[in-house]
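JOB MANIFEST
job_type = single_chain_structure
chain_count = 1
residues = 190
[input]
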Amino acid sequence: MILVDVSHKEYLNEKCGYNLDKIIEIYDHHFESISYRKEILGDRAVIEPVGACATLITELAVQHKLLDQLSDNAIKLLYTAIISHTLNFQVGVTTERDRKMSVVLRDIINKRKILSSDWIQHYFQEVEQGIRKNPLESIHEDLKSGFHFGKSIFTYTIGQLELRNGHAFVETYKDDIIQEVVKYNDSNHL
């Protein structure tokens, strides 16, 4: 099997159902536990500093001249993943590689006429509407925790949401939903 966009070493653990011998390659853009994955998978782990793992997959398709053979759905999925993970190129993890591959995909999208010109706006509106229906569950679905071993040892938790206006969300939910997430995180790290 080939794993894509895996961010936690637990997913590589055989206790989670993966037999490591069956993993041919792993493509990822997350750097937490990189040494663990490289130690376990060696050269089979392709982990590079890009904003979206879909960038790596698109580059691979370009390199092997397979892009034109991908279905409309595959093209839309790769493009969406790049737009989503880079928050439409607005976050610091965005690279020139992400931008370049999004242009390559957008050219195919325009040629095949498979997405509207205002699709990105609609995408983020739908995502935000889904989050606002159940903000607590949405935050819990994308919490990542870890440990930092530097001059001191501490735990951290990162929750990410795709929002058009993150400031408005925080203002709306800071006294209830966000405090609930903080309490949940504190109780699970004691």
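[summary]
The mean pLDDT is 81.
Residues 96-112 form the longest helix (17 residues).
exit_status = 0
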